[in-house]
Amino acid sequence: MKSKRFIAIAALALLAAGAAGAQQGVSALKGHDSHAPIDISADRGEAQERADRVVFAGNVVLKQQELTLRTARLTVAYSNNNGIDINRIDASGGVVVTSPSETARGDFGVYDLDQGLITLVGNVRLERGGSFLNGGRLTIDLDSGRAVMDGGLRGVSQGGGRVTGRFTVPKRTNP
């Protein structure tokens, strides 16, 4: 069991380190400022002031610096202390998070702005430079750039509780 977990972690480290031609050892989201301004567009928006949230629906696009999130429905939770302070964003209906070099997909997503964490759940796929990982849950730490993929519960995700992936190997010429 430990060897399977080590292999999954090693494979994830390879993906995070980048494929051929990508930045070596640096995630595009490392150091992302989760307190930077957020722009949101959608077909519909509904402010629910008593609940301190805003719900967006239909072709939702969220942009924050180089991070883009697309989904069908987005709920923005905030506190109203001397201005609006966004704490958490919940996304559902096919979530796609992109940066200049990575794309992550899942059924549902949570962006915890206070902790600087993005979590995707359900049929998750992380792609970078022709390489990919599939699993049940992905957590990305925006401060460190560390991404952790879990296989999810057996019978819930397509992977059957396992992390799977494919990595491109650059062709090397022998001197």
Summarize the topology.
Elements: H1 2-17, E1 39-41, E2 44-48, E3 53-64, E4 67-80, E5 84-98, E6 102-112, E7 117-128, E8 131-141, E9 147-150, E10 164-166
Antiparallel strand pairs: 1-3, 2-3, 3-4, 4-5, 5-6, 6-7, 7-8, 8-9, 8-10
By secondary-structure content and strand pairing, the structural class works out as mainly beta
Task: Give me the count of strands.
Answer: 10
- Number of continuous helical runs: 1
Q: Biggest β-sheet, characterized? A: 10 strands, antiparallel
CATH architecture: Sandwich
The average pLDDT is 81
CATH superfamily: Lipopolysaccharide (LPS) transport protein A like domain
Instruction: Give the number of domains.
Output: 1
* Helix residue percentage: under 10%
Shape: elongated
**pLDDT under 50 segments (min length 5)?**
1-26
What is the C-level CATH assignment?
Mainly Beta
Look up the CATH topology: lipopolysaccharide transport protein A fold
Describe this structure in words.
- The termini are far apart.
- Strands 1, 2, 3, 4, 5, 6, 7, 8, 9 and 10 form a ten-stranded antiparallel sheet that branches.
- This protein has 175 residues and is mainly β.
- Strand 8 and strand 9 form a beta hairpin.
- The N terminus is likely disordered.
- The chain is built from one helix and ten strands.
- The chain has a single domain, classed as lipopolysaccharide transport protein A fold, CATH 2.60.450.
- The radius of gyration is 17 Å and the shape is elongated.
